[in-house]
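Key result, reporting period 2: structure in, sequence out.
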């Protein structure tokens, strides 16, 4: 049941409303990758190991992913504009805490808090676009712009972070969102309408807690299960995630007002695009995460040069934004998403051939291909989610679209980061074992050498007579770990392409399914008694 209805076509002062919502989405997403550029400096400042650096990088995505479903439901019930403003305000607080952290633990916690603040505001941006723009070409274009700029914001943040690191300390990269959030708050207050097509149904708070814990355990488990000294913890966390998933599903089937309507979720035009979008955007985030460390530590790029190398990803996203929207309208979601997957796969194959002497232009080509792929993949995924969901539950569609980015980014960063850490540790261990001085190296020194690239550099400073050998071994180990990570990314893309290719329907059948969903949801909305929508397709 909804409290009001949306305008027939678009809101008053539509360009200003869309600007406010896109800027708000930019604030939420710009923090996702800013820490990646500063990871070498953060590792040096705190003496962090690779797993800790992975958690710094993934912390913001983790906080956003684990809270977005619950907070999206709260926004649907109590006011999307109000939660958007609260999230933007808390982003400022969280950014300040992260920038001035005094320990690696405080920094990880502050990054997760930043993500939770984004979880309050980010899902409402797509919910409001869906509620304020009627189904049709104008909404598709608005979603395409929102999707492309949201994805591009990570690239923008990385470039600005690289510029800041020329003159300032690592914490300055975590303050980028502060002025943007202040501007967004003013624009939202002035131009975004309140209480449009919101739900009056109670919120399933138990389901919200279960979903939060489920995603937290999943991402943290993937982040730690491959690391040598946290493998058991990772297994426990992943096992906990499985139990929580079963409990969450049980709760949603029994709840009178479920947090996540499983009847809608099992619609083919909902869960297949959700899965496909999760993999394609997560691949962009994972490639940037591993690539930035590779470029700075192996290729020797300064932070700004490393950041500028990923600008082609943003160019690719912008170039294909309108093409993606028109392709979806003309050819359907399946064709458009498969084009995106082809681009992303080509990017990962290109990365497999990176080495210590890779030229700058070749690095940028890989990012351009992945950016184009994300641009083609995300628009049909977001559009399919919103069109297969009733407007009263649009927060669920928005939250799922956000999960594509944030859970996808968290899992792929965690997975590729864990593969990188494991590959680095194993490769360095083999080099140590093959060294003539292996018997003279203590277990503590061995652990420090295998912990991370930054940790190996600290050891090199303590033993200047072996400094060149240690640095060269660290670079060789990082190359091996990165190649393993890119190979895993390529395999994930092939799996996602298979899911989309075999399970998404052709264009004509897609329109029939979406129209059927709309008719069924319209009929259900006229019935006062609550009921879960049965799945079609």
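The corresponding designed sequence is given below.
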């Amino acid at each position: 049941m909804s409290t009001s209805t949306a305008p027939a076509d678009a809101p008053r002062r539509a360009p200003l409303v869309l600007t406010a919502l896109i800027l708000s989405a930019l604030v939420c997403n710009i923090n996702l990758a800013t820490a990646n550029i500063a990871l070498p400096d953060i590792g040096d400042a705190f003496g962090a190991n690779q797993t800790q650096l992975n958690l710094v990088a993934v912390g913001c995505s983790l906080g956003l992913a684990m809270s977005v479903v619950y907070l999206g439901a709260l926004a649907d019930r109590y006011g999307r504009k109000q939660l958007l403003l609260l999230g933007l305000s808390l982003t400022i607080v969280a950014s300040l805490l992260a920038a001035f952290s005094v320990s690696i633990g405080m920094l990880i916690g502050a990054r997760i808090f930043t993500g939770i603040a984004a979880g309050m505001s980010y899902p409402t941006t797509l919910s409001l676009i869906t509620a304020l723009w009627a189904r049709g070409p104008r909404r598709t274009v608005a979603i395409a712009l929102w999707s492309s700029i949201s994805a591009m914001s990570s690239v923008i943040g990385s470039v600005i972070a690289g510029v800041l690191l020329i003159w300032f300390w690592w914490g300055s990269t975590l303050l980028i969102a502060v002025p943007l959030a202040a501007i967004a708050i003013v624009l939202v207050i002035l131009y975004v309408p309140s209480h449009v097509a919101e739900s009056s149904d109670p919120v399933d708070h138990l389901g919200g807690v279960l979903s939060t814990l489920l995603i937290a355990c999943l991402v943290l488990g993937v982040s730690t299960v491959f690391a040598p000294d946290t493998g058991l913890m990772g297994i426990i966390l992943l096992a906990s995630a499985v139990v929580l998933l079963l409990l969450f599903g049980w709760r949603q089937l029994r709840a009178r007002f479920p947090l996540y309507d499983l009847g809608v979720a099992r619609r083919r035009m909902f869960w297949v695009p959700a899965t496909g979008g999760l993999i394609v955007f997560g691949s962009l985030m994972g490639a940037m995460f591993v690539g930035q460390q590779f470029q700075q530590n192996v290729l020797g790029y300064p932070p700004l040069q490393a950041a500028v190398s990923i600008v082609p990803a943003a160019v690719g996203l912008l170039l294909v934004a309108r093409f993606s929207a028109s392709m979806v309208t003309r050819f359907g979601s399946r064709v458009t998403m498969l084009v995106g997957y082809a681009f992303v796969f080509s990017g990962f194959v290109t990365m497999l051939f990176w080495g210590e002497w890779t030229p700058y232009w070749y690095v940028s080509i890989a990012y351009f291909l992945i950016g184009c792929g994300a641009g083609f993949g995300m628009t049909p995924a977001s559009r399919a989610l919103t069109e297969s969901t009733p407007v009263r539950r649009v927060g669920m569609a928005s939250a799922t679209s956000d999960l594509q980015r944030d859970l996808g980014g968290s899992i792929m960063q965690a997975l590729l980061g864990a593969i990188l850490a494991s590959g680095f540790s194993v490769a360095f261990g083999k080099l140590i074992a093959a060294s003539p001085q292996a018997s003279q190296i203590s277990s503590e020194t061995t652990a420090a050498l295998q912990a991370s690239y930054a940790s190996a550099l600290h050891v090199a400073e303590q033993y200047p007579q072996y400094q060149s050998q240690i640095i060269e071994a660290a670079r060789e180990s990082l190359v091996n770990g990165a190649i393993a990570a890119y190979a895993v990314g390529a395999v994930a893309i092939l799996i996602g392409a298979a899911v989309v290719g075999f399970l998404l329907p052709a264009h004509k059948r897609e329109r029939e399914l979406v129209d059927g969903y709309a008719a069924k949801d319209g009929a259900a909305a006229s019935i006062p008694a609550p009921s879960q929508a049965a799945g079609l397709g």
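The two ends are 24 Å apart (CA to CA). Confidence is low (pLDDT under 50) at residues 1-7, 529-536. This case is discussed further under Risks and Mitigation.
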